[in-house]
Design a protein that fits this description.
Blueprint (H helix, E strand, L loop, with lengths): L12 H12 L3 H24 L4 H17 L15 H9 L4 H9 L11 H21 L11 H9 L9 H11 L3 H14 L1 H4 L10
This protein binds fe (ii) ion (FE2) (2 copies).
């Protein structure tokens, strides 16, 4: 085991992360954000694990690590949203609990102002997916069906130019994140749409005929 900093098997990472997130977070939208980011990050993790030719246990361990990182990236945000505290308060808790350094460094890297560089594939993936997952959720919720299945790349790119739409989402971070990850923007958007479509029900974005107008 290279992961000697954690007393727990890496296969428990996701479950522990989900528990910790829920201990600190009440807001349904923040929980949905965590799940949406996880969905995209985990999909990239699967692609990375496949590319590395990882097998059973190592493959699972990588996916658990990617899931946990995404689930935990904003776990302190509800109680500590200021730039002085987020994500630093959370990192202190993760350090105390013995979470692996790679996960903690990636979480620090999602906050540009931390000054921590994004060097690993995990850190680059988290940053690339954070704002985009939120934006794709917003794009889904303005559809009459409220479904991610009705979201397309061209429409997303158009909405990115509409400054009045989802103003809280930083477009520059989406563009920069894709570039850092080495994926063309259109491909990145398409990949994350597909990932979220596969997990639409858990994200509450599966749509419903009853919601159609
Ligand atoms: Fe954050
Ligand atoms: Fe986030």
């Amino acid at each position: 085991m290279s992961d000697s900093s954690s007393p727990h098997p890496s296969s428990f990472h996701r479950e522990r992360a989900w528990t910790l997130l829920n201990e600190h977070t009440q807001s349904p939208s923040l929980l949905k954000h965590a799940l949406a980011v996880e969905t995209c990050v985990r999909a990239y993790g699967k692609r990375e694990a496949d590319a590395q030719g990882l097998t059973c246990e190592a493959h699972t361990a990588l996916l658990e690590k990617y899931s946990a990182t995404a689930l935990l990236h904003d776990f302190d945000y509800e109680k500590h949203p200021s730039l002085e505290e987020h994500p630093f308060v959370g990192i202190a808790i993760l350090t105390e609990q013995g979470w692996p350094e790679e996960i903690r460094t990636a979480i620090l890297g999602h906050a540009e102002y931390s000054g921590v560089p994004r060097e690993t594939h995990l850190a680059k993936t988290l940053f690339a997916c954070d704002e985009l997952a939120g934006f794709l959720t917003a794009c889904s919720l303005v559809k009459p069906t409220k479904s991610i299945h009705d979201v397309e790349v061209a429409g997303v790119k158009k909405k990115m130019k509409d400054k009045a739409f989802a103003r809280g989402v930083n477009r520059d971070d989406i563009v920069k994140g894709a570039a850092e990850l080495g994926v063309p923007l259109e491909d990145h958007i398409a990949f994350c749409i597909a990932a979220m479509q596969h997990n639409a029900e858990a994200l509450g974005l599966q749509g419903s005929p009853a919601q159609a107008e």
